[in-house]
Design a protein that fits this description.
Blueprint lengths: L18 E6 L5 E6 L3 E6 L10 E2 L5 E6 L5 E6 L3 E6 L4 E2 L4 E2 L6 E6 L5 E6 L4 E5 L4 E7 L6 E6 L5 E6 L4 E5 L3
Antiparallel strand pairs: 1-2, 2-3, 3-4, 5-6, 6-7, 7-8, 7-9, 10-11, 11-12, 12-13, 14-15, 15-16
Length: about 180
């Protein structure tokens, strides 16, 4: 079967809100999604039903969610300029939200391949690195973009970080120095 032959099997949304981001859990068939509200919700991909409690704590709209490589944590970022980490098993906050971006929402988030570091990009034109275990910022913000940073991604070996911006550039950051 090719992509042109694919048919939707079911629609997952019981809140009647536009969905702005979805991602599969890396180790099971759970689908995590967020709408323009304040919650992250999990659906069972087989039954099409929401499961468990929503992860609530963002105080403004969520832009992105991303899993740690082992699937034990999910990060949500958005308009409240905080990085929220959630324990996916308990659906509870995993520590205090991290703050650092100034002047607008956080737009992108990614975990390093080993799950020890997280990167965020925001409308403050900066990329920030975070120590996941201590929930603290690593060093100074990575600067060079002249407009909002919408996307961040680690290379498979974790040595490079790419950031994509509204300034029409992709910047590569060497993390081994």
């Amino acid at each position: 079967m090719g992509a042109a032959d694919a048919k939707p099997t079911q629609a997952l949304n019981d809140k009647n809100h536009p969905i702005n981001f979805v991602t599969f859990h890396p180790t099971n068939r759970g689908v995590f999604a967020t709408d323009w509200g304040h919650d992250v919700r999990l659906w069972n991909a087989d039954s099409g039903q929401p499961t468990g409690t929503d992860m609530s704590g963002n105080t403004d709209g969520i832009n992105r969610i991303r899993f740690s490589p082992d699937g034990k944590l999910v990060a949500s970022v958005g308009h409240d300029r905080r990085v929220h980490l959630w324990d996916t098993a308990t659906r509870q906050a995993a520590g205090t939200p991290m703050e650092g971006h100034q002047g607008g929402p956080i737009l992108g988030v990614a975990f390093s391949p080993d799950g020890a570091t997280m990167a965020t990009g925001g409308s403050d034109n900066a990329v920030r690195l975070w120590n996941v275990a201590t929930r603290t910022q690593i060093g100074q913000p990575l600067t060079g973009h002249t407009r909002s940073v919408y996307s961040v991604a680690f290379s498979p070996d974790g040595q490079l970080l790419a950031s994509g911006s509204d300034d029409e550039t992709i910047r590569l950051w060497n993390l081994t120095r």
